[in-house]
Design goal:
Chain lengths: 335, 335
DNA sequence: AAGAAAAGGTTAAACGATTAACCTTAAAGA
DNA sequence: TCTTTAAGGTTAATCGTTTAACCTTTTCTT
């Protein structure tokens, strides 16, 4: 599939100048007389000529493209983050490649490997919950990678931007504790992931501080969609845990859980109080309106991209940024 | 920012073979003795060598990258479509570049222009509602573009895959008519877009068939988010239109509209019946559960990508594919 | 008016692969 | 045994830019 496309050579020939001159006109990299410039420009216009990106890249060793590798099915938090990153990339003159590894560790490694082939200048990575030790290879070579949302402590030299998930878990739990709850269920999506671990630490800390016992049975995993939330909620309610409150880490799951609880003829928040994670379009419309603890997806996205840019421009750049959460109080928590 | 990266040359030197041999080993494009192959492989392994993508691309004139250019803020329909496309691309050995033009026509043109620079092999375009006549330039050059969701009739030679939006509008409206509604509001997001136009034609056809008058006041635009839906619904209810049913073209707007209607102390579906567009995670949980007319985002995405592949491999390829919708009946329509 | 500096161009060497064409040597056919 | 064919490699051209180095010619400086 050979495309017959105008090249710089063609333009140069038609305009009766050298290739170098054409390049200089395009990039404004040398003084060019108005006459020549106009001549060249008109030829460019005439043939709708565009410089070949690969050739440019090959010569300049910079693709002006970044990749965003996410792992989970995108809920509204992730979706908003994605588009914030896309926008920021655009602003900074970068293109964005999107890859979803769907929590497939093996595929993730293959992807990073592929991207590493000078396809992109750097990678924004929200890693899978699997083993990501293979990343060491890249940090050694100082290939620009920035972790977003999730991190892995054993891998040094990778900057990251995440939410302050410990505090988030702590605050959400404390809020429920203040409403008098003693048996608080915690429904998460992926284990072995920093987000989950940090929030659970916060949860435990809050209980400890309130002199409440920590019951492992109250912490369970669910699939990251509505049905998964419903299943998890049912499981928790049917166990002998006397659970009276739920802290759910995913918007779709929250929706599912609410549905399931209603179907069990329990009232929210009277029988079961709920705090969800992440603001989404239906948060305030669902009955009852959902209290959420939220992280700012746009801010995280933009800062992450800027961090990546720093890392690209300075291979030794390092930072760990933790963004604070906020809480949107509505009825589902009992307030 | 020069990266010191191993090249094929380095590998060749270290393995004591020619560059060509290394290339042949990597691409399996010639008989190579087992001994040499192993020698080369081990050097590749040792240096974690990856072929330079730009060089490869430059030589082969194919980037194995496609772009998805969407225009609107992504609701769940679009989000699911995006990831279906990303997955399909992956399957077919392509990378996916994502661009959101946010309904900015000027930016859209700039984007297409940029992408055209051999950055991608082809573009999947869901165009803005603005003037897209500039596309003629590209169809002339047979640059592979496929329209997705939206199309523009005046631009020939561009394949497209969309929903059968006429039928969708017709069926949704007819359903409401059968419930006895005579004044059916139609809330859309973007005017001058084929999706909207086709659905309105369907709406009109349904009214005509039922001998109902067409009242232009009942068709209004709203911003594509929850507040926009709320505003539009209020506007319609406050007008002297005696509206008793609403057909809303966007999930967020539907959520907003429901909220607004409830706040006006009207009951759904008794006072106002509602049919939304697109299935989303809260569809069945909202009170009342929402009746939706839905298009299959994954199918549209996958078929669109395959169509683009066809177009890439055969510049004369042409097709107009219309996917059928389905309807998920719940309570909001009065059933 | 002489010398220096600026303006406006050009030449040619990269950048890092792929691949047709060529060259040996070994194996197979007759 | 002689000729053909296959196997295993290499050389060098090519893809389309960028950019340092070089060369004229014009314009300043003093």
């Amino acid at each position: 599939m050979k495309k017959e496309v105008t090249t710089m050579k063609d333009v140069a020939k038609e305009a009766n100048v050298s290739i170098a001159t054409v390049s200089h006109v395009i990039n404004n990299t040398k003084n060019i007389s108005k006459a020549t410039r106009m001549k060249v420009m008109s030829v460019i216009e005439k043939y709708n000529y565009k410089p070949n990106y690969s050739a440019k890249t090959l010569r300049q060793q910079s693709t002006k493209t970044a990749a965003l590798v996410i792992s989970s099915y995108p809920d509204s938090f992730v979706t908003e983050m994605i588009f914030a990153i896309e926008e920021r990339a655009k602003e900074m003159g970068y293109n964005l490649l999107l890859v979803n590894t769907k929590e497939n560790n093996e595929y993730e490694e293959k992807t990073i490997n592929l991207l590493y082939s000078n396809l992109v200048d750097g990678i924004l990575l929200s890693p899978t919950s699997g083993d990501i030790q293979y990343l060491h290879k890249y940090t050694m070579e100082k290939f620009p990678i920035v972790m977003i949302n999730r991190y892995e402590d054993s891998i040094k030299n990778i900057p990251r931007v995440t939410g302050d998930n410990f505090q988030l878990g702590y605050d959400a739990t404390t809020h429920l504790v203040k409403h008098g709850h003693k048996n608080i269920g915690f429904i998460f999506t992926y284990p072995n992931v920093s987000t989950t671990a940090d929030r659970i630490r916060g949860y435990q800390q809050a209980l400890k501080q309130a002199n409440l016992p920590f019951n492992e049975e109250l912490i369970i995993q669910g699939f990251a969609h509505a049905d998964g939330g419903a299943d998890a909620a049912r499981e928790l309610l049917e166990k002998e845990t006397k659970v009276t409150a739920l802290f759910i880490q995913n918007d779709l799951m929250t929706i599912g859980a609410i549905d399931a609880i209603k179907k069990l003829k329990k009232s929210i928040p009277d029988d079961i109080a709920i705090i969800g994670f992440g603001e989404f379009s239906a948060s305030h419309i669902i009955e009852p309106p959902i209290t959420n603890v939220v992280l700012p997806p746009e801010t995280i996205g933009k800062i992450a991209f800027d961090t990546l840019l720093n890392k690209i421009n300075n291979p030794d750049y390092m930072s760990h940024i933790e963004l604070p959460h906020s809480m949107t109080i509505r009825k589902s928590c009992g307030c």
